[in-house]
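Issue 218. Parser rejects a valid record. Input:
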Amino acid sequence: MGGLEPPIEHLISMGYKQPTTRPIKISHNVYVVCSQSVVIFDTVKLSNLLIEHPKPAPAHGVTDTACRAQFAGVQYRHSKQHSFIASGISSMFMLKKIIAAILLPLPLALIITGLGLYLLWFTKRQRLGKWAATIGVLMIVLFSSTPVSNLIVSPLENHHPTFNVDKVSVNYVVVLGSGHKSDERLPVTSQISLTSLARLMEGIRIYRTNADAKLILSGWGGADPVPNAVVVANVAMALGVPKTDIIKEPRAKDTHDEAKLIKAVVGDAPFALATSSAHMPRAMALFRQQGMNPIPAPTDYLVKNSPNQSPNLQFGAYNLRKSESAIHEYLGLVWAKLRGQI
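Output the parser choked on:
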């Protein structure tokens, strides 16, 4: 994709109006786009704005030549510095994702089990190998059991009450992003993950009970060329939400980014925050740290009990999913505290 002009449709999907001039190449893969603002855009990282500058407003508008003269030289020196900073942030972001992936129950258990098997088969450290293999197998058994998975995820899911639409009114409903695959072979409702769909459904439920409310959808694309916010917005429109009531924020890579970027839209006004119940404690802490006033709207519950249901002991992949969701959130809380984000 390097060397290509940034697609105008992508910029429009990010909230920028149709540029009045063509993109101007100022470096390999880097262009200046004159729109409502001057955007320095990297075609290799389509989801990432390297830097943004307000566009001056001379009497007769900004011409292609004026844009190049005023921004392509001096401002690009700033953009290179910003790109370096962004690269550092991206490295930290990737480090966080790698650490979290390794410390989740199943990967960690497989690593420990594999280490034990290696020691048993290829070394004389038989006792240590037996202990490692046994611990790894026990981890899989415990984390895939109903009692253990419910025990660790329930405190997160029950931390906040559900949103009562009869007692609370808001002007903004924020739906945090989750996974998606922009596979055009599939109906749009199948392109987002079940988690993302559950969050959107809760957001729409609240949106429909609040006249004049706006639905704010966030989430970047990751490896997918289309941001999560855009795909979820397409689902929302397919379900009857008018395009004029949707605000997209496709730049946020994680919950901390979402809080910072969405603050520019809602300020300190109260708003409904729709996300998974296990994710809600961390999301609320990050948004409040920005001086915002979120009202929790938890959804996507993993622990569900029927009335008078007796305790049961079952093992399965769904229980392992509950355990991984809980561990992911506990790790996220620790990381946010270490980074001073909450």
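Fixed in the parser; the record now loads. Residues 244 and 320 are 40 Å apart (CA to CA).
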